[in-house]
Amino acid sequence: MGKTDKDILTTADTAKLLGVSVRTAQLLIEGGSITSWKTPGGHRRVYRADVLSLIDDRSRPAAPHPSATVIVLGTAERLAVYDRLFAAAPECTVEMFEDVLEALVAVGSVKPHTIIVDLAGSGAERLPLLRSLSSSSVAGGSQILAVGEQSLVPRDLPPRVTGADDPESAVSAVRATLSDKDELTLSNETFPIALNEGRRLVALERSGLVDTAPEEAFDRLTWLAAHGLKAPVALMTLLTPTRQWFKSRFGLDLPETPRSWAFCNHTVMQKGVFSVDDLAADPRFAENPAVKGEPRFRFYAGAPVLDEDGFVVGSLCVIDHKPRTLTDHESQTISALAALASDEVRLRALDRKLRESNRRTTEKKDGNAATAANEISGPARRGGSKSDLGRA
User: Fold this and answer.
1) Which of 22, 250, 296, 339 could link 234 by a cystine bridge, Cβ 3.0 to 4.6 Å?
2) 145, 116 in Cβ contact below 8 A?
3) Model pLDDT, residue 6
4) How far is CA 45 from the centre of its chain?
5) 114 or 56, greater pLDDT
6) pLDDT tens-digit readout, 232-276
């Protein structure tokens, strides 16, 4: 039997059913958390059953959140090649290992988007792990790539293992599967965006940080950044589709700016620290309203802030009113503080998961207790007193 009109929902219908904003529903749909399709007129539609499955994960095993983490296992020489190649891939976070056991532990803890097992060099040592991952639930929904010449890759591996001849081909394959850019539309886009910007926005929404009250943990980090780098302004920024919102700010009264103003648009496209000695002299920023007019910013340095799945949700940055050059020590400082900010974001995600787990446990206990009470009281409701039941 085909689907009826009542089974098909618009984005607004989806938002109402989920109890979220239309924008949040749009992000969930565009990010792939809810399967959708486009009408001839270009409008998104989803099935009610898919939305209900998202609400009640007891109806089927919950799909893991999409991850932006890639794990690479190989020799030191090959890892250096991957490090260089992935430096130009801002849409993912990469963890590299020479040791098989360390790689396996990482796979179990971060649930990566992709696992790359490079068989060049001492590849025989990594074959058992490759076979284990290809048939184990530990890898979950992770994509698995076996990299090496055809003679190195066994032909009897399961279909879920994809072959790649070399690191370049492997990285290209990873970036292709990470990309959701064709599905995303940002109005008046005047800034660079990653290939998986839609998924990044879903991750930001999932973090629950946007438009929340100030928190001492983040305020300490911006204070340390400003004083450690002797900068008048320090910010922890979060980039929504239209806004650069400041979770924490030191030395600036504005709570947010249009996203098109954000220097951090470039920071979230980097693996490390992004800095500009003189914003007014850089053609990318010379016409920026915050550079051309008040508060006339001149220097910027920032590093990405990551969530538990490796998505870049924003940045920790410092800004100055005069041109300057970032020193190596200052670069290390801002990088370390951004890492601490990332840890705080992950801790909040862990806390949410624990609270959700406790809520579900409580609901299950309450449900079991209610069922037991109904079973006990059932005979009495159907007629007869305790003495009647005893005589029976």
Assistant:
1) 250
2) yes
3) 62
4) 24
5) 114
6) 999 999 999 889 999 999 999 999 999 999 999 999 999 999 999
Nearest to 27 by CA among 18, 93, 315, 60: 18
pLDDT for 1:
44
Number of alpha carbons in the 13 Å side-chain half-sphere of residue 144 = 25
- Provide the residue ranges of all domains of the chain, joining segments of one domain with +: 5-59, 69-178, 197-348
DSSP code of residue 117: E
Q: Would you place residue 68 in the very low, low, confident or very high pLDDT band (cuts 50, 70, 90)?
A: very high
| HSE-CB for 126 with a 13 A CA cutoff | 26
Domain 5-59 CATH (choose: 3.40.50.150, 1.10.10.10, 3.40.50.2000, 1.10.1660.10):
1.10.1660.10
Question: Percent of the chain at pLDDT above 90?
Answer: 49
- Which CATH superfamily hosts domain 197-348? GAF domain (3.30.450.40)
Task: List the structure tokens of 298.
Answer: 């001149």
Percentages (nearest 5) of helix, strand, coil residues in the chain: 45, 20, 35
Give the C-alpha separation, 46 to 37, whole Å. 7
Q: Tell me the three state secondary structure of residue 343.
A: helix
> From the CA atom positions of the chain, what is the Rg in Å?
26
Domains 69-178 and 197-348 share a fold: no
